Amino acid sequence: MANNSNVTGHNLIKSLLDSIPTLPGIYRMLDCNQQILYIGKAKNLRKRLANYTKHDLTTKITIMIALISDIEYTITSSEVEALLLEAQLIKKWQPKFNILLKDDKSFPYIKLRLDHDYPQLIKYRGQDLTNGKFFGPFTSSSQIDITLLELQKIFKLRSCTDNFYANRKRPCLQYQIKRCYAPCVNKISAPDYADLVLQVQDFLCGKTQHLQQRLAQNMEILSANLNFEAAAEIRDRIKALSYIQLKSGATINEDVDIIAIAEIHGHYCIAVFLYRGGQSCGSKSYFPYIPEYSNKVEVLTAFLSQFYHTHSPPKAIILSDAIPQSGLLAESINKLHQTKSIIIIPKGGIKRDLVLNAYTNAQLALEQNIQKSIKHQTIFAEIRQLFGLKIVPDRIEVYDNSHIMGEFAVGAMIVATPNGFDKKEYRLFNISQLKSAGDAKIGDDYQMLREVMTRRLTRLRKDHTKIPSLIIIDGGKGHLSVVQKIMHEFNLSIPFVCMSKGLIRNAGHEQFHLPNQESFTLDNQTLLMKYLQILRDEAHNFAINAHRAKRSNAIRISKLDDIPNIGQIRKKALLNYFGSYQTICEATIDQLSQVPGINRRVATTIFNNLHLSS
């Protein structure tokens, strides 16, 4: 549907009602620039849109309707389908009047590999949960790292790669420090290792009581047979398992998500606590983007719809507050994930206690977030005044680059907002290698800056939703001239400033350079100066870390050049086949000989040269 007239707002909706079907679907409200303002779903599209013509609308909806210049809709087979499509499109387009879940990365799992005679536990992030046994999800990678470390101490399963495992002739350090039973050199039998795997599965599935009873029986049998050393090891395992249970504090034996929402003066925080198999899998606090004049029920409903669009649900989703059409939401979640989840608002008991605990955490996290936000908003207001900006900036992009004589050159962009660093928006620019030695452009910072800014502004032409309010470049007057020319070429007027370390090159004496202004500095003791230094340092660290990684990888790969009979063609074939230098090092002779152009004699040469130091 397209609006070819100048009718807008209420009048537009009224003029279109007769042509809108009475079927389920989703609708998109667009402004005069064809940007999506809002995406909604409806059981009856005509009836739902007719509600926007009433006079007792909320302030938020009234403001939105005044901006509407066009309406589009898509018919679906059912209201459940409409709800699923709504969540998908909101995630894709992120309209300004929808409640948006910004930080929605997939949760990691612990994966028990089943494709090896001696399985191992690894960290896994992805949607395919078919090739192996999966436990979780967990709310953070760091929590999985801690869990895997504890499990390795207790059960001593192998943690090495398959290539490392296949090439061992003697136990590695993990065996010496009692973190592995060394199945690679037959220090443990296959049946005993398989029993350990079953024990790990019981623990991760929450069958801890059954597991401890079985271990206790084994300990008694070993003691009766006078095998006291093995009995003592099982005793220590039982103690360690008991300690982990006490430390986790888990008090529910179901697979549940506990979700609580807290609100302070129009700001919201949603705390999510995950429990799987009686084990706590961590918690995470979310601070969704909330349009003005939204309420708690709207925020929680929108959060659940978007959260479970990408996260697999447990058997029960336990909420702090009731939401309308919870049955419809549960039906859509179950259809998407092929599950049988239910939504519960507990009245009492342990589930209510867990909800209250989640609410307390949400409240505390929200208070801290508001305090942090107030500090940032104050600083951003000062930045506006300092650099003469028309508005308080909501997106500051900071640029730096790193290289050694033009080699391994990397440009970096970091993004700061009034809510802190937005690390999802950080970007790296692999800069074309500059001229070789003897050329005047070796290590030319201006050439690098020109390439980075040209690529960024070219991208900006395609994506108008992420226009920076201010650009800060780590550099001096020369860099200022480069950016001025590029802005003129792109016919843009984005405010920018260059920040250099001053004449004596000391941090704390930074100079600020703006177009058509005298350079100036600030008192090093002010919070504003310290914050600008933090921005510059963040960009610098991001750039130099990327540069070091790039240089390190290139240096390692260049070691292939020292191997006889390995030229550029064979090196390229090796890298294309294995993907990285590290994987090449881990490959066996048989695996190396599978590479096109690498026969067994050459594979043996490569293997021997890469393992001379081992």
From TrEMBL:
Residues 209-244 form the UVR domain. Belongs to the UvrC family. The keyword DNA damage applies. SUPFAM superfamilies: C-terminal UvrC-binding domain of UvrB, GIY-YIG endonuclease, RuvA domain 2-like. Residues 258-487 form the UvrC family homology region profile domain. Interacts with UvrB in an incision complex. This is UvrABC system protein C. Pfam families: GIY-YIG, HHH_5, UVR, UvrC_RNaseH, UvrC_RNaseH_dom. The keyword Iron does not apply. NCBIfam families: uvrC. Residues 22-99 form the GIY-YIG domain. The UvrABC repair system catalyzes the recognition and processing of DNA lesions. UvrC both incises the 5' and 3' sides of the lesion. The N-terminal half is responsible for the 3' incision and the C-terminal half is responsible for the 5' incision. The lineage of its organism: Bacteria, Pseudomonadati, Pseudomonadota, Alphaproteobacteria, Rickettsiales. It is found in: Cytoplasm. Keywords: Cytoplasm, DNA damage, DNA excision, DNA repair, Excision nuclease, SOS response.
